[in-house]
Amino acid sequence: MKKFIFMGVIGLFLLGSCNSKSGEGHNHETEEHAHAGHDHEGHDHANEGAGHKHDDGHDHGAEAAAAHSDEIILPPAKAQAAGVESDIIEPGAFNQVIKTSGQVMAAQGDESVAVATVAGVVSFHSKVIEGMSVSKGTPLVVLSSKNMADGDPVQRARIAYETARKEYERMKELLPNKIVSEKDFAQARQAYENARISYEAVAKNHSAQGQAVPSPINGYVKNLLVKEGDYVTVGQPLVSITQNRRLFLRADVSEKYYPYLRTIGSANFRTPYNNKVYTLKDLNGRLLSYGKASGDNGYYVPVTFEFDNKGDVIPGSFVEIFLLSSPMENVISLPHTALTEEQGSFFVYLQVDEEGYKKQLVTLGADNGEKVQILSGVKAGDKVVTQGAYQVKLAGATNAIPAHSHEH
Length: 408
Fold this sequence. Notes:
Layout: H1 2-22, H2 24-46, H3 48-68, E1 71-73, H4 76-81, E2 85-88, E3 92-106, E4 111-115, E5 120-124, E6 133-134, E7 139-144, H5 153-174, H6 182-203, E8 211-214, E9 219-224, E10 231-232, E11 237-242, E12 246-254, E13 266-270, E14 277-279, E15 286-290, E16 300-308, E17 318-331, E18 333-335, E19 340-342, E20 345-351, E21 356-367, E22 371-376, E23 383-387, H7 389-398
Antiparallel strand pairs: 1-21, 2-23, 3-12, 3-17, 4-11, 5-7, 5-10, 6-9, 7-8, 9-11, 12-16, 13-14, 13-17, 15-16, 18-22, 19-20, 20-21, 21-22
Helix pairs in contact: 5-6
């Protein structure tokens, strides 16, 4: 029995050898593949230490390249010369903002108008131009009535005054003797007083050239309402004068923001002529009122503020207004000077080391004219370029600065 089993094993072995010979090419490839795999495996094992060191060195270089591939190098000396400034960002208070438009107007009581005291032809006294400073009583316009059918109103007022005065004095002498009645004497005295008042009013600023109209207040010439050679009647406005001490800021707010108007406490505004942002807090400003209904000709609700004019705000100008509503805490915000725009997206520049800067995409929130809320892209503790961001952008775009070469 054992012999039979042994012979069977020998038979199977011979059968396998025969099959191996018949499929020699296939097995050879298999052997080569196995050998190649064995060599590769042996190679890895043999060079494991060297390969490990090589991989480490390669990864370190890749990490360094990844860290500095988008880094902009700007040496401190050049950054200072370009006015680049960086600040560490910290969360703070910020207000919700309603952005709209409006107008700066002269406050009530700070503006007056010089009017014609007599009828006549306008001629300006010396040079009167808009914006010039004038003092109370300074002659602005001279009104001449020469060669007119009605004659010189000052001369007519003088004649009427002299006539009424003589009649009054005559009746005054006759009254004790009861030659004239008390009623007639009272009428004569009234006519005399009226004529005196009229004459003194026009004769006060009269000269050979005509009737001078002075400035009613100290201030600045806002508008010239007449031209040289115009004919004016009594009471017609000639020149408007403004003191510009207090100004009104009127914001026209869409009706959809009406529920939020009660939360508005202050405002910022930007003028079109110098693109400067003014804050009412710095101008001693305050909220006067907000409308309870929209105007007849539109769908806007007026919100009115009052503030001090520091001398560079022009009454009558239309401005961009940022109404400051409910406060928010722990908000990250950046000044407008920190932002750059590319195809509708906004970026800032992070300072990563003494001379390295990195471009960072940010998402914007509320804008109060001075600062913008940052919703994403910047976190507390980041050092962000707040002045000179475009200079950093230019340095990266032109590749004017040599590649990063310092050791890490």
